[in-house]
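[Archive record]
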Amino acid sequence: MKNATVQITYPSEKLAAIRQYMGKKDVEMNAELHDALTKLYEKHVPREVREYLESQASVKTEKQPRRPARQAPVRTPENTTGSE
């Protein structure tokens, strides 16, 4: 699945306090926010829809075309150097 960016407005003083105290506990804000969004997703999106989205994501990864192997160039009289 593609990733999207979430942007919210929050009081700067509170955000600074969160960063300060999370830093003291060596906790990463992005990880905490990701966990919170995951919980919201699991709470509000019906199980059937989550299963469908997960199955679609796995189908897309299975169907991604593989890059063909590079083949050696075919020697023709036009592209030989005459050093044979």
Remarks:
- Residues 39 and 56 are 21 Å apart (CA to CA).
